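Handout, page 2. Input:
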Amino acid sequence: MADTSDLRNGLIIRFKGEPFLVIEFQHVKPGKGGAFVRTVIKNMRTGKVLDNTFRSGESLDVIQIERRKYQYLFKDSEFFVLMDNETFDQINVSEDILGEGQVYLKEGDEIQIMYDDKEQIISAEIPMFVNLKVVETEPGFKGDTATNVLKPAKLETGAQISVPLFVNEGDLLKVDTRTGIYVERVKN
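Output:
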């Protein structure tokens, strides 16, 4: 069992029955009273961020995390079907675990799943950047480049993003899955 002296950024602890990631901590020794540790922790399942204070020396339940690589195969109603790259076992992962970036996933993409010490899925990490083809967009007009004007584009996964006017149908784009923002045009 660990205590507050073992706290560090990136440590995953079980707090109120849920896995939390320590984002920030600060050891405080006031002139009057006992020392304490002020923390900012993030719920790994819901993404909710909390400010919490632990008394100095308070015991903490540290979770050992195991990361496994999976390949995205297909979407089956509300579940994503993933295959373990080592054992070739298939698992179903719900949409809420993959988060907002799931609309940018295409078949064959690699996803990292984090398991806790009880073999329960805590969270998933999808690639930060993906290359997707534009399947539908309006044509840009020559000379319309004086300002940073954007137009809507539909990608091969069905996601809609805003792109510069020079992007055409069939172009391969690099997209940030965390924000859904166009990064650059990729050469085929």
